[in-house]
Amino acid sequence: MARSKSTAADLGAYICFEDEAGQGLRPPKGRTWAPVGARPVVTVRGKGSGRVNMAGVVAYRDGERPHLFYTLHIYRGRKGEPKSFSWIDYRDLIVATHQHLGAPLVWCWDNLNVHLAGQLADFAAEHADWLRIVQLPAYAPELNPVEGVWSLLRRALADFVVADLPGLVRIVKRKLKKIQYRPHLLTGCLAQTGLTLDTPANP
Q1: Distances in Å between the alpha carbon of 53 and those of 15, 104, 112, 183, 184?
Q2: How far is the C-alpha of 140 from the C-alpha of 188, rounded, in Å?
Q3: How far apart are CA 119 and CA 125, in angstroms?
Q4: Which of 27, 40, 51, 158 has the CB geometry, 3.0–4.6 Å to 75, for a possible disulfide?
Q5: Among 102, 75, 60, 10, which residue's Cα sits nearest to residue 189?
Q6: Cβ(150)–Cβ(124) below 8 Å
Q7: Between vectors from CA 136 to CA 182 and to CA 18, what angle results, nearest 5°?
Q8: DSSP run (H or E) holding 52
Q9: pLDDT for position 30
Q10: Phi, psi torsion values for 54, nearest 5 degrees
Q11: What is the pLDDT of residue 183?
C-alpha cells in the first residue's frame, strides 16, 4: 500500500476501497438470542427467491473522518435479468463518490472480471486528473476494509427475517445507513486490515 498511499498524499486524494457482497431472503448465519432452554424458530413465507447485491466503498483521507458509500443491485430471478453489477454501475459508483467527496480518488479493488473491463480502463485514462485505479493482490480480502463492513452488516441482519425482496432491501439500506453514520466503525475496519494512512517519511 505504500505506493497508493504516496500517490494519495501527492494528490490530496481519498483512498477508496471497493468490494461486493450479496444477501438473499435466508438470514445470514450468526448468533441470535432466545430464552434459556428455548430454541429460536422463525417462520418465513415464500420460496426465498431474489437477492440484493451490494457494492460498497469506504473512503479514507488522513486527518478526516472516513466515508461509506454503496449502491444496490436487485436481482429478482427473472429470465434474462442481469444477476449482478455491470461496468456501467461501477463507473457510476466511482463518479458519485468523486462528486460527493470533491477530491481526487485512489480506487482500490480486487481482480473481479468486470473490474478489469476495458471500458473502465478507458474511463480511468480519460479522468487521470482525479482517478487512479489500483488492483489489490489476488486472494487478499483481508486487505480490504469493506470486508469489515460486510461483517458488521451480516451481524446486524442475523436477528431479522423478511418475507419478500422489498423488505430485505429496506433492512439492508437501514443497516448500511447506520454504519455510514458511525465513522469509528469504518476506522476499525481499516485497523483490522493492518493498513495505515501514515505517509512514509522521506529518507
Answers
A1: 23, 27, 15, 23, 25
A2: 18
A3: 10
A4: 51
A5: 60
A6: no
A7: 35
A8: strand 51-60
A9: 53
A10: -125, 135
A11: 96
Residue 73 grid cell: 443491485
Among candidate residues 99, 113, 86, the one with its CA nearest the CA of residue 59: 99
AA identity, residue 43 = T
Which grid cell is 21? 457482497
Secondary structure class of 149 (helix, strand, coil): helix
What are the grid coordinates assigned to 114, written together? 468486470
Write down the residue that cell numbers 468523486 correspond to. 98
Please give the Cα distance from 168 to 152 (Å, whole number): 16
* pLDDT (0 to 100) of residue 5: 47
In sequence order, the β-bridge partners of residue 21 are: 54
* Dihedral over alpha carbons 22, 89, 121, 191 (to 10 degrees): -40
CB 32 within 8 A of CB 40: yes
In angstroms, the CA 113 to CA 84 distance is 12
Give residue 126's identity as a one-letter amino acid code.
E
> pLDDT tens digits, residue range 29-55?
555 555 666 665 555 554 556 889 999
The CA–CA distances, whole Å, from 86 to 22, 90, 168, 198 equal 15, 7, 22, 34
